[in-house]
């Protein structure tokens, strides 16, 4: 994982949002809202030639905002330690652990029950 690249195709999250590295949360939010409105895929749906580019840019903007607006993720990103793929693995591990606990908790006393979410 390249700190400057993230998974957004080669440009750092700060440049995706067009902000400085010392930007405040308010600056990040303002830049995000402006760019999200500009590149929202629904706005470009009538023009198929640019719809794909708009979708790609919107996803980059979303990813950059999700990292830079969260102080712990931003600190890790600034230190070059943030990996968005690792975060997805962590979510899967937590879900699997919760499912495991629910399943075996219900099997105590030889009563079987299943929870569906």
UniProtKB/TrEMBL annotation:
PANTHER family: PUTATIVE, EXPRESSED-RELATED
CDD domains, per database record: DnaJ
Organism: Glycine max
One Pfam entry name: DnaJ
Name the record gives this protein: J domain-containing protein
Gene coding for it: LOC548049
Domain J: 12-81
């Amino acid at each position: 994982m390249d700190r400057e690249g993230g998974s957004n195709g080669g440009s750092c999250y700060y440049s995706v949002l067009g902000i400085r590295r010392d930007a405040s949360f308010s600056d990040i939010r303002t830049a995000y809202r402006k760019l999200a409105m500009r590149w929202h895929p629904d706005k470009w749906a009538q023009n198929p030639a640019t719809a794909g580019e708009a979708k790609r840019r919107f996803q980059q903007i979303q990813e950059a905002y999700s990292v830079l607006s969260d102080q712990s993720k931003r600190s890790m990103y600034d230190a070059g330690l943030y990996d968005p793929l690792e975060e997805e693995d962590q979510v899967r591990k937590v879900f699997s652990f919760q499912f495991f606990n629910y399943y075996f908790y219900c099997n105590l006393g030889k009563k079987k029950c299943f929870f569906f979410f």
